[in-house]
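Entry 14. Structure prediction run on the chain below.
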Amino acid sequence: GRLAAIDMRFVNPSLPSDPDSKLNQMIDCVIEVYKRTAGNEYLGKDGQTEPAKGGAQMVFSDLGFGAGVTEHRGFNARAWMEKRLRDAGIPPGQVAFMSDHKKSTAKLKLFQDVNAGRVRVLVGSSKNMGTGVNAQQRLVALHHLDTPWYPADLEQREGRIIRQGNKNPLVEIYAFSTKGSYDTVMWQMLASKQRFIDQALSGDSSVRSIDDLTEASQFQIATAMTAGDPRAI
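Output returned:
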């Protein structure tokens, strides 16, 4: 369900590309921001303008870009994204995937490249890019392609861009969601979990109990998706 919400080719690889799929809409947005911020200039520690121009972006998705899903589903979302960015005139060397950089030294060099403007699009997951990533200096936009399971994951993702040391006075955060898909349920579960957490952390001494958090049953989810109305849950 989560993969289908990203692109139906994960369900049927023989389907044509849908320009309105969440994957294509996200790529369109990345290309638009890339071109719009291509002339951005940034100052180095010495107060001089750095040689490379352009703002950087991060794309978060916890599924869809791994080799395993490509093998099992028959659709290579990574290759599709790389092709579309290349066709739009974005040099392949300016696009990086966090999963390719496993060693600490490789990660450190990658972050330096993003901060210096040599890499302008970085793709990763909540797990490999959510914490310990100091590549914020040029980050101008962040994209949530999918919805993580926990509010903390969302907070950690956005903590990569809303961060001290970012040289952009204004940043953009995009969250993509497919209408009538499992995305509705994912966002709803995030909201339920966050309410539960807020209750626990409110500091209100009059609160003696907290509502238990239960996930909607598969039948309720199916009903809501069929009805196209999340209130059905």
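The longest strand covers residues 139-144.
Filed with the rest of this week's runs.
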